[in-house]
Amino acid sequence: MKLNSVVFKLGATILFLQLIILIPLGFIILQLILNYSYTQTESQLLNLSEKYATEVESLDGEDHSRLLDHLTDMTDTSAAILNADGDITTKTHWDDAISNQFLSEAEQDRLQNGETISKEQTYNGTTYLKVAQPIMQSDGSHASVVLFSSFGLISSSIHNIIILVLLASLGAVVLAIGFTIFISKKLGAPLIEMEKAAKQIAEKQDFSVRVNYQANDEIGSLANAVNHLSRTLERYKNNRNEFFSNITHELKTPLTYVKGYANAVRHEMYQSKEERDEFLDIIENETDHISYLMDDMMDLSKIEEGKIDLNKETFDVNHLLDEMVRRTQFKADEKGLALRFEQPAQPTMLYADKSRIEQIVINLVENAVRYTESGSITLQARATKEGTEILVTDTGIGIRKEDIPYLFERFYRVDKSRSRANGGTGLGLSIVKYLVDMHDGTIDVDSEINIGTKIRLFFPVLDKDKEK
Ligand SMILES: Nc1ncnc2c1ncn2[C@@H]1O[C@H](COP(=O)(O)OP(=O)(O)O)[C@@H](O)[C@H]1O
Ligand SMILES: [Mg+2]
Asked: Where in the chain is the domain with CATH 3.30.450.20?
């Protein structure tokens, strides 16, 4: 595990938090117990010495030392009796570590005045609690009893507590490490997998990698995002490859014609001047075809890159369709087709980019003319509260049901040679679909073989456009 990994940082934070809580807590508990033991010992010694001081009236006789013996025995304390002059007369259970000079002058004076003394004193590194009590004698003078109790009892409990705190800290550290390992498995593994996947995508351009992690959390959605990214890039790459091979193919055909006929003209492989003009016409048509192809491709790439903006305005579709019919009339006339617009009485208002709607309609009308041998092409328009509808109906060759879903794909043509012969590039409907989508519209194809095709455009009235 690296020192700068998220998991390590998390583990260190957990450990740090634990110690921050455990150390003061241990300290507080220690203080509490120390205080408690101290007051306990002090009151015990005070009790003892008071009891002794009240029971004993004279230091003569054996009784008092027996009582002292008895009391100190029970409580494990060292005791000494001093007479009124401050000389030690008796010692019981004496701890040799305690110096014989255990009372200062000032303390002796205080005892003579009848005061009780309670004080901590350290000998040889051991701390004792010293309690001295004056004994009022029958002659009025003050003897005294001095008790010493070591903190042995207390320090052993402190010892226990320290061990407990240390054990608890150790337990906490083990827990934290365990938790960190668990988290590193749970968190770190998918993150590392995603890092690898991202590197694979960026450095090796391998878009087939997927992260195998499913969870309903942030890491899960990150994994989904990585997968989504690689899927999109994969699709993009495949599309691009397909697009390039299509373009190469589409350009090759006209170029072959141009080269072949140019060659034929150069070597005068024609029978008559008419035939030569025919060859030159073919060359001209094929270069036109390349030119259309370039225009369509430029359009498509601009649209796909999101480089075109819509200049929306409200206009009457009737004028636009009327104009379209007039402009394409000659193409219909060439094939002897009737082309008409059934203009409604009311204006058909639409909020859209006029030039783009024009582009859409021209493409549809050109297709209708291209794929109709006899009969008519009819344009219709209708505006309702929901939106605006434009219909282009022809009596042409029709499209098979199974081909309809693919019509909007780039370079998809049901009949390649027919399309080519009529100047089609196979890109028209892809461009139309993009433009319709940009307007949040829909395009539907309804067709029957040898009966005809009806294309329905619908542009809904959008809430966001209403205030305009
Ligand atoms: N009105 C129609 N009638 C019959 N077939 C059509 C019609 N419009 C489009 N198609 C079919 O859809 C294909 C794709 O159309 P499009 O993208 O405009 O390419 P093209 O350059 O061939 O016109 C055409 O090649 C044709 O097979
Ligand atoms: Mg077309």
From this structure: 6-158
Q: Supply the DSSP string of 89-126, one letter for each residue.
A: EEEES--TTS-S--S-HHHHHHHHTT--EEEEEEETTE
Q: Assess contact for 130 and 120: CB atoms under 8 A.
A: yes
Does the beta carbon of 367 sit less than 6 angstroms from any atom of ligand 1? yes
Ligand 1 atom at shortest distance from the alpha carbon of 430: 17
142-169, pLDDT tens digit by residue? Answer: 888 888 887 655 566 667 777 887 888 7
3-state secondary structure of 306: coil
Among protein residues, the one whose CA lies closest to atom 8 of ligand 1: 367
**Smallest-distance ligand from the CA of 410:** 1
Nearest to 42 by CA among 170, 107, 130, 135: 130
**39-43, 107-111, 170-174, 252-256, range with greatest mean pLDDT:** 252-256
- In the CATH hierarchy, which top-level class contains the domain 218-301? mainly alpha
The closest of 50, 128, 141, 62 to 94, measured between CA atoms, is 128
What are the φ and ψ backbone dihedral angles of 318, each rounded to 5 degrees? -60, -45
Q: Which ligand minimizes its atom distance to the CA of 292?
A: 1
Q: What is the mean pLDDT of residues 46-50?
A: 85
The verdict on the CB of residue 377 being under 6 Å from ligand 1 is: no
| Topology annotation, domain 6-158 | Beta-Lactamase (3.30.450)
Q: Which residue spans of the chain are classified as CATH 1.10.287.130?
A: 218-301
**Start-end of CATH 3.30.565.10 domains in the chain:** 309-466
Is 309-466 CATH 2.40.50.100? no
CB of 443 closer than 6 angstroms to any ligand 1 atom:
no
Distance CA 286, CA 423 (A): 9
